[in-house]
Write a structure and sequence with these properties.
By secondary structure, this protein is α+β, with helices and mostly antiparallel strands. The chain folds into 2 domains: 187 residues, Fructose-1,6-Bisphosphatase, Chain A, domain 1 (2-Layer Sandwich); 121 residues, 3-Layer(aba) Sandwich (D-Maltodextrin-Binding Protein, domain 2). It is 33% helix and 23% strand. The chain has 8 helices and 12 strands. Strands 1-2-3-4-5-6-7 form a 7-stranded mixed beta sheet, sandwiched between helices. It has a 5-stranded mixed beta sheet with strand order 9-8-10-12-11, with helices on both faces. A hairpin with a 3-residue loop joins β4 and β5. α1 runs antiparallel to α2 and α2 packs antiparallel against α4. The longest helix is centred in the N-terminal third of the chain and has 21 residues. It binds 6-O-phosphono-beta-D-fructofuranose.
């Protein structure tokens, strides 16, 4: 049964209470996953506070007072990777860590007996840092199998938890363990994440399409036509039936799609299967949506290597069904128009 809690519940309590419920239901739980989620919760607060200081780094640096860490200011993406690796390596339940920022996974000494592996994109959308636009951290947790790098190559459906932290107007942690999606908003004064949406379901249909139009020339004719249709409908009815929104930070674009519905796509094979597509697909499916690479559900795609990139299409159920119908509606030549 899905664990339900009152809006305003602290994340830490939520994590432990939902584990307690599982135990009452007779599930064999070791509490390991809860501890890992707690490590992510703690680290994300540190990252959030570093990000809030980002614009001040130079100013503080030039005054000669202190810099962010009391040491050499690192680039934020390096710093976030460092903080996550450092903190998660101390967690005895984590056997291996893969990061978008590291060529190879690491196997921390403390996690020798751990049963879980974690992969993450420490700071997604980092090109948006300099312009003070929302960015995020994305994570995915799977079970250890053989204890080798290959364990990371399990399909998305083997994830036991996934989530993201959005550093936006407010900091939000959104995650699923396969029992629905819950949103937590960081109340910065006490430094606590509070439940702000429980078992979130995205709208069945939305009027927003989110494609990077400047890369139109890289898409095949199916995607070009699909986006053209939205513009044609607007032209025919003489008003915006559909609107385009594209932030260029996956976390922010997915978050908007979860809330307002619609379709998001990056057809260019830029996004990473392990660090971006799998965790986002898990969340979107748990919220009632669909995520594909056009031919297969993302959750079924078996990764070939840890830094593999794929096309990603995700969104509300009906938008995604429309997209599928569109793709099947005429013979695919694979050509660019
Ligand atoms: O993968 C990094 C990233 O910044 C994502 O957060 C974002 O969705 C994407 O790149 C933007 O890609 P593009 O340049 O193709 O629009």
């Amino acid at each position: 049964m899905t664990y339900r809690a009152e809006i305003g519940t602290h994340l830490t309590n939520f994590i432990y209470d939902s584990e307690e419920q599982e135990r009452k239901e007779g599930k064999l739980t070791t509490g390991s996953l809860s501890r890992i989620l707690r490590s992510i919760e703690d680290t994300s607060k540190l990252i959030s506070s570093e990000i809030r200081m980002a614009g001040l780094a130079d100013i503080i640096g030039t005054t000669g007072k202190v810099n962010i860490q009391g040491e050499i200011v690192k680039k934020l993406d390096e710093l976030t990777n460092y903080l996550l690796v450092e903190n998660l390596s101390k967690n005895e339940r984590i056997y291996a860590i893969a990061s978008e920022e590291m060529e190879k996974p690491i196997f921390p000494e403390k996690g020798k007996e751990g049963n879980y592996i974690i992969s993450f994109d420490p700071l997604d959308g980092s090109s948006n840092i300099d312009v003070n636009v929302s960015i995020g951290t994305i994570f995915s947790i799977k079970k250890k199998i053989d204890g080798t790098e290959k364990d990371f190559l399990q399909p998305g459906k083997e994830q036991v938890a996934a989530g993201y932290v959005l550093y936006g107007n407010s900091t939000m942690l959104v995650y699923t363990t396969g029992n629905g999606v819950n949103f937590f908003t960081l109340d910065t004064k006490p430094g606590l994440y509070l439940l702000s949406e429980s078992n979130w379901k995205m709208p069945d249909y939305g009027h927003v399409y989110s494609f990077n139009d400047s890369k139109y020339y890289l898409w095949d004719e199916k995607d070009q036509d699909f986006v053209e249709k939205f513009k044609q409908v607007n032209k025919i009815v003489g008003k915006n039936m559909y609107t385009a929104r594209y932030i260029g930070s996956l976390v922010a674009d997915v978050h908007r799609t979860l809330i307002q519905g619609g379709i998001f796509a990056n057809p260019t094979k830029k996004l990473r299967l392990l660090y971006e597509a799998q965790p986002m697909a898990f969340i979107v499916e748990q919220a009632g949506g669909i995520a594909t690479n056009r031919t297969e559900n993302i959750m079924d795609v078996v990764p070939i290597e840890i830094h593999e990139r794929i096309p990603l299409y995700l969104g509300s159920k009906k938008n995604m069904e429309d997209y599928k119908r569109h793709c099947n509606s005429r013979k695919y030549t694979g050509k660019k128009a």
